[in-house]
What we know:
The protein is an alpha/beta fold. 19% of the residues lie in helices and 34% in strands.
Amino acid sequence: MYKFLIPLSLIFLLAACGEEAPDVTEESQTEVTAPEGELDPTAPEQAENAEFVSFEELASGTIEEGSGVSVQGTVEELADDIAFPSFIIVNGENRIYIRNMAETPVEVGDSITADGIFEGSADEDMPMISASIIEKPE
């Protein structure tokens, strides 16, 4: 009797666990946009007219928050961010925190140019940019 019940119960258990997850449709996904009149850091066209700024200008606070900026530097450290990949770039002794809105793959030691929106200060009073265009020279 047990020889019959054990395989039968295993079949029922495996059959119950085999249900597939429902497919995600386009309608259930939410699109996030910036409020009217503000720059959208996820839109590359917002960063196309970015002005090149120095690390010193960002660190001193002379650049207004929400401005389109472009910076060049070397990736020093990859950081964990919940929403987007992020990293820290350096140019001498100054550091800038970059939120990688473009999700462009970068590695420590890469020289990059990041165009995006200046978001003010991040942790440790480090300037933060939400970059929607990240370029690596080839």
